[in-house]
Amino acid sequence: MNNVETTKDWWKEEVIYQVYPKSFNDSNDDGIGDLQGIREKLPYLKDLGITTLWICPIFTSPMVDNGYDIADFEGIDPQFGTMADFDELLADANQLGIKILLDLVINHTSDEHQWFQEALKDKHSKYRDYYIFKEGKERPNNWRSIFGGSVWEKVPGEDCYYLHVFDKRQPDLNWENPELRQEIYAMINRWLDKGIAGFRIDSITFIKKDQDYASLPADGVDGLVSCKHKTRNRPGIEIFLNELKRETFEKYNCVTVGEAPGVPYDEFSQFIGEDGYFSMIFDFHYADIDVESGSDWFKRTNWTTKEFKELLINSQEALQAAGWGANFIENHDQPRALSKLVKEGFQTAEAAAGIGVMYFFLRGTPFIYQGQELGMVNAQREQISQFDDISSIDNYHRSIQEGFSPEEAMNFVNLRSRDNSRTPMPWNNQQFGGFSKVAPWLEMTEEYPRVHASENSVLDMYKQMIALRQHSAISPILKTGSIRFLTDLPDNVLGYARELENDTVYVLTNLSPEEEAVTLADEIGEIYLNTHAINEPAGKEFTLLPYQSVLFN
Ligand code: GLC
Ligand code: CA
User: Fold this and answer.
1) What pLDDT, on a 0 to 100 scale, did the predictor assign at position 1?
2) Beta-strand pair 72-76/59-60
3) Could you give the CA distance from residue 234 to residue 454 in angstroms, rounded to a whole number?
4) Of 125, 330, 343, 488, which residue is the least packed, with the fewest Cβ within 10 Å?
5) Domain 476-552 has CATH 3.40.1350.10
6) What are the residue boundaries of the structural domains of the chain, listed by start?
7) Which of 77, 103, 259, 350 is catalytic?
8) What band does 294 get if pLDDT is binned at 50, 70 and 90?
9) Is 193 a catalytic residue?
10) Residue 192 predicted with pLDDT over 50
11) What is the rounded distance in angstroms from the CA atom of residue 265 to the CA atom of residue 438?
């Protein structure tokens, strides 16, 4: 390995940038982003100041779920380029001091994976047991998949069904099979031997299924029940996760970032404690504040900023008690943060910077999703045919099935669609935002002539945020200091102190569209960042403008 840092916890010092390869930059003008496109933009990323890139799946795939359906774990999808392109990208990135994380999708494969094809062809093949097949004329139970419909799909020509927690073209792997597990570990180690810095690990809390495969009472008019009660973070998963770590990650000084929905706070230490399964995990408890569950978009909540603040504080306190967190406000499954967290009419560049500062200096490793640093907003679409994302299409139909009108269904999908964050990156105000010379695979967000990377005040603020965390007199506090939340603030104002030995820096954010008066115990000292230049707080008593953030001591 050529890029491994010497300290055990080197990943606490990183700023990680997430690339969605289909939508980042198209180097050969076929309308689809690719590896050479990412390579062309390394100078942009270096200038931004990030230190690690997480690239969403680039492996051979029919792209039913845009690469989260892998047909060959060790092949590069031709849309994205070749293994030689990947090697060049890795070498150039490392040259610039940028590490690379890949996406590890090991809960399921594509139905086009050779293992699954063999399993379908011959029921006596050993590959049948690499997946979860159940014999019978009827579906074995009433579990609903995350992307809608039953988790069971019939095998053509047989009285037999296979299980898929996500799309029917993403059959779940059978982690109960030791031989399958060994094949996965060997694959992981080959990638780590190549010199990548680690992995973001997809849907990892789904690998253990309750072996009774029992039905539960329905929770929808379709007569089905969300499969997560029986397939997510179930007892016994600790055996698989410990083995996974022991056979792979532990042998390398790599970083592992678990996508671990469904883990209660009192189990965080098993996941991210001293001997935890992963370096860090994403916590979704406040990311999904606008919906009752990340997969039922028609169950919207009327959340308040006070609730958001409480969820965020609980999350940070649980992460701090157990280990280390992966902090984010956007990713390829979430709507744009500016649209979700900031009220309509207030979605300005300053507000984008305000919510950026709010999360960026929390204790943990900050993740930035492509375009977040530009202050992008959700796309507005009128017809379901304009969507690519399978879960948007499913949610549209399920909303109608649950009794909502087509207009209401479209509204739910516009608010939550995963396509909101998957629109092509606008590099400039030219046609197709300089992403490609031809119409891209997914429509641009319509505001790109105004919001793009060639001139952008949100981007300038992100550069300052990164520089402060990485290379300033207060970096040690911002990177490793503990976090303490301030009390005695208005409900709408979030405040925290980062503390290291005798040094403290503070962050205050007004999470609301109202002005908020704040009274501090001590006078503000030096201001390091202020997202609203027209209003410079001073003294002990001052007013914060809507969505204003300040970082000071
Ligand atoms: C994760 C990914 C998501 C994908 C799903 C199935 O949640 O982030 O994009 O659709 O897993 O792999
Ligand atoms: Ca391309």
Assistant:
1) 40
2) antiparallel
3) 47
4) 488
5) no
6) 10-106+178-205+237-380+422-462, 381-416, 476-552
7) 259
8) confident
9) no
10) yes
11) 47
Q: What is the pTM of this model?
A: 0.97
238 labelled catalytic: no
Query: For the chain, first and last CA: distance in Å?
Result: 40
Q: How far does residue 418's CA lie from ligand 1's centre (Å)?
A: 10
pLDDT of residue 432: 97
CA of 201 to the centre of ligand 1 (A): 10
Give the HSE-up count for residue 9: Cα atoms under 13 Å, Cβ half-sphere.
14
Q: Which atom of ligand 1 is closest in space to residue 65's alpha carbon?
A: 10
What top-level class would CATH report for the domain 10-106+178-205+237-380+422-462? alpha beta
- What was the pLDDT predicted at 6? 64
Which entry of 202, 288, 290, 330 is annotated as an active-site residue?
202
Q: Where does ligand 1 bind, in terms of residues with CB under 6 Å?
A: 65, 68, 105, 166, 202-203, 259, 332-333
- To 5 degrees, how large is the angle CA 286–CA 288–CA 293? 130
Q: Which pair of tokens denotes residue 438?
A: 């031809």
Which tokens sit at 131? Answer: 């997946």
pLDDT digits (tens, 9 = 90+) for 375-411: 999 999 999 999 999 999 999 999 999 999 999 999 9
Nearest to 118 by CA among 59, 190, 57, 180: 180
Structure tokens at 410: 């479209």
DSSP class per residue in 396-460: HHHHHHTT--HHHHHHHHHHH-GGGTTSPP--SSSGGGGT-SS--SSPPPTTTTTS-TTS-HHHH
Task: Identify the nearest ligand to the CA of 106 by its number.
Answer: 1
